Amino acid sequence: MLDQLTIKGRLVAAAMRLAAERPWHKVTVAEIADAAGVSLVDVRNEIGSKGDLVAAFVRMVDDAVLTRAPQRAGGQPPRDALFEVIMSRFDVLAAYKPALKSIAASWPIEPQVALAVAGSQPWMLRAAGISADGVEGKLRSAGLGALYASVYRTWLFDDDPGLAKTMAALDRRLRRGEQTLQQIDGVVGKFCGFARSCRDAARNHSTAKPSEPDPGTDAASIPPGALS
User: Fold this and answer.
1) What CATH number did the domain enclosing 177 receive?
2) 11-59 pLDDT, tens per residue?
3) Domain of 75?
4) pLDDT tens-digit readout, 121-173
5) How far apart are CA 119 and CA 109, in angstroms?
């Protein structure tokens, strides 16, 4: 998954190896550079911090999941497709679980990592054949982010090879989320209908012929002191 032909790929791979060996907060950028066999100049040109490396890792995982998605999610009901996509993500992450445990223990999470994880959510929806565009899409992405964060914590400490706890938690959260999503979609649909009606009314008003001004009420015809 990690393209080690690129400098960034080598840096990310080195960061994951070092994180698996010892606490992430003790790993330095200089050590990552040494492990990757690159200079600090190259590191400076590629990243700004360790958080940037983790964010790059998240995006590389996105690429791997999206590559798998057409075979896994095609023609399935949305909830089943999303289940497959998320489990596919955990499958991609499995080799890096020791490193991810180390990184998770080094909270608080850095802003760029949080942004990368948030950016993954609409792509997981799209991989499952679910729209992630517009107001509805933003709400779905936010909801999926909360769902994924909860199930990710379960997966991180699920040592069962079959991931029974993870799959049970994911199925439970998806069923609950599906009900919530239906309610949200209903509310958003009503709001969008209201917004469209307001827009149409505004357009109709703006294109209506303006009434002729009353010459008897312009400013010049008002006697001095009449407004005092």
Assistant:
1) 1.10.357.10
2) 999 999 999 999 999 999 999 999 999 999 999 999 989 999 999 999 9
3) 7-198
4) 999 999 999 999 999 899 999 999 999 999 999 999 999 999 999 999 999 99
5) 15
All residues at 6 or more sequence positions from 12 whose CB lies less than 8 Å from its CB, including other chains: 2, 53, 56, 57, 60
Asked if the structure places residue 27 within a domain, the reply is yes
Closest Cα partner for 88 from 128, 118, 122, 59? 128
The candidate with the shortest Cα–Cα distance to 82, out of 116, 118, 129, is 129
Asked if 88 and 69 count as a contact pair (C-beta separation under 8 A), the reply is yes
Query: 128: helix, coil or strand?
Result: coil
Task: Give per-residue burial for 68-94: e unless 16+ CB within 10 Å, then b.
Answer: bbeebbeeeebbebbbbbbbbbbebbe
Domain membership flag for residue 185: yes
Q: Is 207 exposed, middle or buried (0-12, 13-18, 19+ CB in 10 A)?
A: exposed
Inside any domain, residue 227: no
pTM of the shown model: 0.78
Is 28 inside a domain boundary? yes
Q: Rounded to whole angstroms, how far apart are CA atoms 41 and 64? A: 29
Q: How large is the greatest C-alpha to C-alpha distance in the chain, in angstroms?
A: 91
Provide, rounded to the nearest whole percent, the portion of the chain with pLDDT above 90. 64
Number of structural domains (the chain) is: 1
